[in-house]
């Protein structure tokens, strides 16, 4: 006695179709969020660094430079760029297009003082 309703076979087929669509949606949402995270990372590179991060970038590059050139007492960002210890993208402040300039003084006991000058910021004592 079949009243043309849903049978077991039709229910199993419908469930398989729904599970297939659900898996497809999960994969697409996962790809979407992976793309957003990648864009956020690229945007941090594209739009620059905070002034403290720029000072840190310059100081880290100067320390590497100083390991090979122990006789220097002042290292400029120009020298670091020319010798490939630093890239100009690491000197660009947030939401600006022009890189900062600066220098690092090497003090006694291998201490470093970093100074930068940017469009809207300058380290005290520059």
Description:
The chain has 126 residues and is mainly alpha-helical. The chain has 2 domains: 7-47; 51-117, no CATH class. The protein is built from 3 helices and 3 strands; from the N terminus they run ααβαββ. A 3-stranded antiparallel β-sheet has the order 1-2-3. The chain is rod-shaped. The N and C termini lie far apart (94 Å). The relative contact order is 0.12. The model has no long low-confidence stretch (mean pLDDT 86).
Give me some keywords for this one:
126 residues; mainly alpha; 2 domains; three-stranded antiparallel β-sheet; 3 helices; 51% helix; rod-shaped
Structural class call reads: mainly alpha
Beta-strand percentage range: 5-15%
Order of helices and strands: HHEHEE
How many distinct beta strands? 3
Rg from Cα: 28 Å
Please state the overall shape, judged from the principal axes of the Cα atoms: rod-shaped
Produce the secondary structure layout.
Blueprint: H1 8-47, H2 51-68, E1 74-76, H3 77-82, E2 101-106, E3 112-117
Antiparallel strand pairs: 1-2, 2-3
């Amino acid at each position: 006695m079949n009243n043309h309703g849903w049978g077991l076979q039709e229910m199993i087929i419908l469930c398989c179709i729904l599970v297939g669509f659900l898996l497809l949606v999960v994969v697409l949402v996962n790809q979407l969020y992976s793309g957003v995270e990648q864009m956020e990372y690229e945007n941090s590179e594209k739009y620059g660094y905070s002034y403290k991060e720029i000072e840190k970038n310059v100081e880290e590059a100067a320390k590497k430079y100083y390991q090979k050139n122990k006789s220097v007492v002042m290292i400029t960002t120009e020298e670091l760029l020319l010798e490939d210890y630093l890239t100009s993208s690491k000197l660009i402040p947030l939401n600006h297009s022009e890189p900062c300039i600066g220098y690092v003084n090497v003090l006694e006991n291998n201490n470093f003082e970093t100074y930068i000058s940017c469009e809207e910021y300058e380290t005290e004592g520059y």
